[in-house]
Amino acid sequence: MASLTGCGGGDDGGSGGNASGGSCSVPIVNPDATQVSVWGWYPNLQKVATNFNNTHDDVQVCLTNAGQGVDEYNKFQTAITAGSGAPDVIMLETDQVPGFALQGGLTDLSEYGASDVQGKFSEGAWKDVSSGDAVYGIPVDGGPMAMMYRTDIFEQYGLTVPTTWDEYRAQAEKLKAAGGPLMGDVPSNVPAPMVALMQQKGAVPWEYDAANPTDLKINLNDQNSKDVLDYWANMVKDGLAGKQDQFTTDYISGVVRGDYATYVSAAWAPGYLTGAGAGEGADAGKWAVAPLPQWDPANPVQVNWGGSVFSVTEQAQDKEAAAVVAKELYADDESLKDGWVNQIIFPLNTSVLTSDEFINNQSTFFNGQTANKDVYIPAADAYEGSTYSPFSNNFYAEFTKEITAMNNGEKTGSEAADSLQESMETYAEQQGFTLS
């Protein structure tokens, strides 16, 4: 990570060119219009960008897939450090926005009409892209969390769908006693959902404001965080949950085999599992989804895992034109419908969330269940937003180590939380933050 004072500036990656050095992957319909270079990776973005170019006379998108996730972020980091080479607009996962914003790599869109589209999103979705009065991205999609479960396993073992985490453990104990499969899984390689569950219980891991970019408060070992980590550490220790890395062939094979009764995940998970081969053939029709179990049913809290935004970089030459793209790319009805129908995104735009077609959609993966209406839309509506780590990659790497130690019985959840707090404080100070 570049120093906090390193600011991406310059005018080599701006409008009219493709910062990746390649040609545009979509036709430029109006060659006399301002061209805005965009990095993004979603599988239907070529269609989305083509829709944009066909409906805009003054601005055109020059789209490049510069890689997904870390591959793209490394290229963007290099461009920030060099002061050139960034695109005008970049797709980022939501939790990556703070780190790049604090480096000065992203433009504050509150100065470029962000308020024009704010009403199209929930308060929680907007908080995710904001810091104080500043706005560093326009939401595209999100991941309201829920509990997917195997109806065949629940029926075979007489399980009741849990509404609290205490009930979840009780059903896991019943399942084990009957010789059934594991209730769920605690992966070390994807710590983001664990952070969300900590927040669900009331933890506030990070506190900062872009107006004071070097001031930071870290709260990773408060009692709420320790309670959650101890809960899951004990689930693994007692043989109620597995510790298989997710997004792997072995994990998917286990999901298809019925090794897990539940999958605590986000609204995009059905699309991911379908693409990986789950929910098909003999595995078809066996899944349903229920609201995420609560720590305190009297005070329910909904959380989010994943999602993406379009941000304007500081290297954009024409920030007005770039802001138009950030606000309007993947925002038209045709593109949004293509995204959700094909399970590429769970859109956050309220024009979709309030549409009868989306609300009443009968999910093929969930055997005809109206999952949007029953679970995902209420979760998205109730989500109040999050403050993400200003150095997500390092944080997740350290958290992965701690969950691994926890899963292996080397540390309790509380001890893992204390270790994580210490390592993050040390790293933050090395990066020039002042801790409060």
From TrEMBL:
Signal peptide: none annotated. InterPro entries: Bact_solute-bd_prot1, SBP. This is Extracellular solute-binding protein. It comes from Goekera deserti.
